[in-house]
Write a structure and sequence with these properties.
The chain is mostly beta strands. It contains seven helices and 37 strands.
């Protein structure tokens, strides 16, 4: 019998996720037989390529790479004495893809994470190659992440050259940053951020894939794929697709694995929980000697840099690992991953009780007109507002004091809300503070008996309601009768009754109008 190779970092698609598996376990699971590579059953965790399960009468079961693989740089092709792990100070800077509003061209941006320096040499400069863009310290946002343009042409690697930089800056901004892989680079559609190598992806989450060859459109029921752009001028001949997995199955999992992404129900995540902290992009501000964090997902490593004391306190009820970290440094890099970093953030120690500027929240309508805290008697254009914040928070919509919708507001990202109607108060909350609010009221009429419903707005909201659907409840006829003064609404409800089906959201809207708006109007008539 031959010596067993060191190809031990192997996973198999089981129970909605890629699970680590040993050769002997796989041999038993496959009915004591080998599995050729063309069956695409097992993947190498380090390079993301499919591997062969070798077994026979005179061979110990083991996994093996194929000689025909395009990528032969996997660390486990040799007899390594130790499993590969990423360095504790390893991290890459975020790259995002942005579609410009007016030119419709796609641009790439590099995120320069916050640095602990406020004084710079007069000749300090940043130059990014090969796109040859230059920046000075005036371009930097010293309290958060700074995104700088990489231009329209994607490159496979970028170099950050610094001139007269403060000592220690390289610990935050590495000299080399992996760029756009023409064989396939995946971005989160909502944020535009490029996914790291071996990143986790979820069902019902839209992603963008930039690739140098067309993708097949016959992908089965578990994937939705749409080609959205192919412009020689703006994307250098690359194809851009939007893709979304709709189910955790073998077909979707193997589609994403070819782009070094893993479909999973439990993505890698670092979540601070105690003590008090403020969250920003790639930075958690706190003022404590210890920090407690939850780490979740299919990860094999949790590290700090510089190295500090880490205590594993156990698991939560939903299988998350609880850690306590001793924060001896002012800036502490914490990361989690498998063979590469998947998630990282800086624990940034600074006083939280000092007087700081209020979090900046920018709110505009569809014409980019600023909307400030206050009261309006006119609805925004198409009932829509756009929000941008430098910190994580959430948007709350209230109607007569009752919360009707809550929307997550992520730092450095635009979020839009729709269907704003009269009687709605919109609030932006960051932490426990309401930092912006605006109420929309109808002008009170001299004759209170003239109160009426805004039928066009209600019709628009009803028509925008989608799945899931339910059978038309018998109470729908009572609602229809109460709306006899609004023929458009009554007719819409009649159609639902005839079809014996209605959207759940539409029914809740009508029920709310019946129990609140109509009741309030009747009271005003008395």
């Amino acid at each position: 019998m031959g010596k067993e190779p060191s190809l031990t970092h192997v996973s198999m698609w089981l129970n909605h996720s890629w699970k680590a598996i040993g050769a002997s376990e796989a041999y038993e699971l496959m009915g004591k037989t080998g599995v050729p590579i063309d069956q695409r059953m097992f993947i190498c965790n380090l390079c993301g390529q499919f591997v062969t399960l070798v077994a026979g009468d005179k061979q110990v079961p083991h996994f093996r790479h194929s000689k025909g693989e395009t990528d032969k740089e996997c660390k486990e092709r040799t007899f390594a004495s130790k499993p590969r792990e990423y360095s504790a100070n390893a991290h890459s800077l975020p790259i995002r893809i942005v579609k410009e509003q007016y030119s419709n061209k796609y641009r790439f941006d590099l995120g320069l994470i916050r640095i602990p320096f406020t004084e710079f040499h007069p000749d300090f400069g940043i130059k990014i190659l090969p796109c040859d863009t230059a920046y000075s310290y005036e371009h930097l946002n010293l309290s958060s992440i700074t995104y700088v343009s990489l231009g329209y042409r994607p490159y496979e690697s970028y170099q950050i050259k610094l001139k007269d930089q403060p000592r220690g800056l390289r610990a935050f901004w590495p000299e080399r940053v992996a760029g756009i892989n023409p064989k396939g680079t995946v971005f989160n559609k909502r944020t535009g951020i490029r996914l790291n190598y071996d990143a986790d992806v979820l069902i019902d989450e839209p992603y963008l894939i930039l690739v140098n060859s067309p993708l097949s459109l016959e992908l089965g029921l578990s994937l939705e794929l749409e080609r959205i752009e192919h412009e020689q001028a703006s994307l250098e001949g690359l194809y851009l697709y939007e893709v979304k997995a709709t189910d955790y199955d073998d077909n979707a999992a193997k589609f994403f694995i070819q782009f070094n992404c893993r479909l999973t129900e439990r993505p890698a995540k670092i979540q601070p929980i105690w003590p008090l902290y403020a969250n920003a992009s790639y930075c958690v501000k706190h003022n404590s000697q210890d920090m407690y964090l939850l780490v979740s997902g299919n990860v094999t490593a949790f590290k700090t840099y510089p190295n500090s004391y880490i205590e594993h306190l156990g698991k939560s009820h939903d299988d998350k690992d609880l850690y306590r970290i001793s924060c001896e440094q002012r800036q502490q890099l914490v990361s989690t991953g498998r063979s590469d970093v998947l998630q990282y953030t800086y624990l940034w120690k600074e006083p939280l009780d000092i007087k700081e500027h209020n979090p900046q929240v920018k709110v505009t309508d569809l014409k980019e007109k600023a909307v400030f805290t206050g009261l309006s008697f006119d609805l925004p254009i198409n009932g829509c507002l756009r929000f941008y914040s430098s910190y994580d928070g959430y948007i709350v919509q209230r109607n007569r004091g009752e919360i009707i919708e809550r929307t997550l507001l992520k730092a450095e990202q635009y979020v839009s809300i729709h269907n704003i109607s009269y009687g709605t108060c919109v609030e932006v909350c960051i932490g426990h503070d309401i930092v912006w609010s605006h109420e929309y009221k109808r002008k009170e009429l001299q004759d209170s008996t003239s109160a009426y419903l805004d039928a066009p707005t209600i019709m628009r909201r009803l028509n925008q309601c989608s799945a899931p659907y339910i059978k038309a409840p018998h109470t729908l006829r009572n609602i229809q009768r109460s709306l006899h003064a609004y023929p458009q609404l009554a007719k819409w409800i009649s159609t639902c009754i005839a079809k014996n089906t209605i959207s759940v959201r539409a029914y809740r809207l009508l029920e709310h109008i019946y129990r609140n708006d109509l009741a309030a109007m009747e009271t005003s008539h008395e």
